[in-house]
Amino acid sequence: MPYRKINVWTSLDWWTVILFFVLFFIGWLAIYSASSDFDHTGMMTLSGRSGNQLLWIFISLIVGCSILIIDDDWYSIFAYWIYAFIILLLIVTIFLAPDIKGSRSWLVIGNIYIQPAEFSKFATALALAKFLNQFKFNLMNPKNFLIALGLICLPIGLILLQWEAGSALVFLVFFLVLYREGMPGMIILIGICMTVFFILSMKYAEVFFDKTVVGQLIVLVLILLIAIGYIFSKKNKQVIRNILFGMLIVAVISTAVYLLYVYDLTIVLLTTLALLSIYLLWLAYKFWMRDYLFVVLFILFSISFLYSVDYVFDDVLKPHQQVRLQVALGMKDDPTGANYNVNQSKIAIGSGGLWGKGYLNGTQTKMNYVPEQDTDFIFCTIGEEDGFVGTTFVLLLYLALILRLIYLAERQRSTFNRVYGYSVASIIFFHVVVNIGMVIGITPVIGIPLCFFSYGGSSFLSFSILLFIFLRLDASRNERL
Q: Phi-psi region for residue 315, left (φ > 0), alpha (ψ -120 to 50) or beta?
């Protein structure tokens, strides 16, 4: 294959670099504003938050330049080794990390705090990109799909053992990458269904209609409707008539019994789903139709998931996570507790109005009304001081960055580069949407940073490594012609 050596610095995508610089500069100014008092002293003092962040910015820039100098083949050759090292680090963290704010995800070395979960994002992206880059690779081969799933789920499991659910959720965005590489959209749809089922079953878990739990009733109805809708889309008239006739019989019998004796209506739906599953299994066996088998698996998995929600909520989630979830779903009002951060954040953003109060003039910020205002809730500082105009500008910067990364990913000539590029765009997208949604109260508070804005050395360095590796891969895309 012809090989042409390129100059990295002239081939670098400078639009992405400019967006990176603008974002971290605005973020650094916001950190100083959020962490300083009315005297506005010590902007570059290392003992202060802004000074400490500036140090990490310089370290990240040095690391970023080093990444650009290294040959691009290095990232593919050592992808699995990097992944294995980070996995080992995650395992060590489980046993050695101290308890900090309810999680054991930070390794403490002197005065330096390192969160390996942040670095596992780019390591997983590299490993997944290398795995999918095999010659004549077929993602939907069962063995290949399970291995790809394992690469994603292994760090999720280890991070959950550190009681860091927010960081673990980020890895779900890798399914968007798999979708781009050929995974059926139905799997994404199933994930969305499970999310909806969880929310509905939780929100209406304590609402009853006679002896029936409304949350379970709604979810079972949805499962039945989705299954029937999929079957009807196949337009097999005989199958449709048989199903409708069977459902009519069940409806008549269950209504007659209900008039004589009030019982749990979920029994009717479970019976209907069981009979439907048996019929579909018979059809799948007789006509060797994989679609019907898929519907049965969806029904069984959905029902199992529904009845495991209580266990997950009571025995897996920690008490503070339970309260946050209940507050986010409107099941509980806790204005001085779990919902305090969000309420104060909304007040700060709302008080900014159209143009904001001006830089360093945010009263909510200066009076420390918003906890974690320079980390997870840094966006409310922008809202208070720069108003609607400032927040819109920041959102447009993130939108421009994400769209640019998608554009760069699509122009790559190798699967490795493309997969890694989509991983970068997906991770940044998730952080931006969830963090800002958390700040304005439309997503649960799960404690994930805003890319290049939130205070934190591990976070900033990991995002910089994630981005600069892709910039290096993109710069060398034309070396092999």
A: alpha
- In the DSSP assignment, the letter for residue 316 is I
Contact of 305 with 194, CB cutoff 8 Å? yes
- What pLDDT, on the 0 to 100 scale, is given for residue 4? 58
Q: What's the CA angle centered on 348, arms 343 and 353, to 5 degrees?
A: 125
**DSSP character for 212?**
E
Tokens of 460: 């900033």
Average pLDDT value for the chain: 86
Three-state SS letters, 104-116: CCCEEECCEEECH
Structural contact between residues 425 and 179, judged by C-beta atoms closer than 8 angstroms: no
Distance CA 229, CA 215 (A): 21
> What per-residue confidence (pLDDT) applies to 348?
84
Q: Three-state SS for 480?
A: strand
Q: How confident is the model over 176-216, as pLDDT tens digits?
A: 999 999 888 778 888 888 888 888 888 888 888 888 888 88
Contacts 24+ apart (CB under 8 A), 297-300: 298/190, 298/223, 298/226, 298/227, 298/230, 299/223, 299/227, 299/273
Return the domain boundaries, the chain: 8-184+339-475, 207-316
Instruction: Note the pTM of the prediction, 2 decimals.
Output: 0.86
